[in-house]
Amino acid sequence: MKTIAISGSPRENVGKRDAKELRYEGKVPAVLYGGKEQQHLAVVIADLRDVIYTPEVNFVEIDVNGVKTKAIVKDTQFHPLTDVLLHIDFLQLFDEKEIVMEIPVKLTGTSPGVKMGGKLIQKLRKLRVKALPADMPQNVEVSLEKLEVGSLFRVRDLKGDKYVITNTPEDTIVSVAMSRALKQAETEAAKGKK
């Protein structure tokens, strides 16, 4: 999985007033936890663009005073009206400890059902994946090559070698439904036979 490097500076003061001052300076208060003790940080908002405002999921390498720590974004808080980032939580990664992440679904190929006029409906855009950090996929690929009209692809149909998908096996990822035009053509054909 891709890793994005950002830099942070330690924060001694952790209060509402200090957080407001940080935001005024173009920084965001952050917390790095999961290690021996949690660290309170200040991170420049511009550094977080490639981490937060993207459909991809990436690891983050946080450089605090020369010490680099690999982590993932665990939680973000946005202002309810302005959508400005208010706070971010990072979870420290360890090579031997499994993590759970929301990984995007990537649809590949062309469905024969869509070629015949069916409508492709994607119900899940992300899946919960549990794996070691080294085995975490960038995305989960779903092949549409065998999807006919009326068929669907479920979580149980996916095979992961080094990772486990923790969604319910019965959850539908993508399906091909009959479009209105196709239904109309079928009814007209049935009427014509009578």
UniProtKB/TrEMBL annotation:
Gene3D superfamilies: Ribosomal protein L25, beta domain, Ribosomal Protein L25, Chain P. GO terms for molecular function: 5S rRNA binding; structural constituent of ribosome. InterPro entries: Rbsml_bL25/Gln-tRNA_synth_N, Ribosomal_bL25/Gln-tRNA_synth, Ribosomal_bL25_b-dom, Ribosomal_bL25_C, Ribosomal_bL25_long, Ribosomal_L25_dom, Ribosomal_uL5_bac-type. CDD domains: Ribosomal_L25_TL5_CTC. It comes from the Bacteria. Keywords: Ribonucleoprotein, Ribosomal protein, RNA-binding, rRNA-binding. Pfam families: Ribosomal_L25p, Ribosomal_TL5_C. One of its GO terms (cellular component) is cytosolic large ribosomal subunit. Residues 7-90 form the Large ribosomal subunit protein bL25 L25 domain. Residues 98-179 form the Large ribosomal subunit protein bL25 beta domain. One of its GO terms (biological process) is translation. This is one of the proteins that binds to the 5S RNA in the ribosome where it forms part of the central protuberance. NCBIfam families: bL25_bact_ctc, PRK05618.2-2. PANTHER family: RIBOSOMAL PROTEIN L25/GLN-TRNA SYNTHETASE, ANTI-CODON-BINDING DOMAIN-CONTAINING PROTEIN, RIBOSOMAL PROTEIN L25_GLN-TRNA SYNTHETASE, ANTI-CODON-BINDING DOMAIN-CONTAINING PROTEIN. Part of the 50S ribosomal subunit; part of the 5S rRNA/L5/L18/L25 subcomplex. Contacts the 5S rRNA. Binds to the 5S rRNA independently of L5 and L18. Belongs to the bacterial ribosomal protein bL25 family. CTC subfamily. This is Large ribosomal subunit protein bL25. It comes from Pedobacter miscanthi.
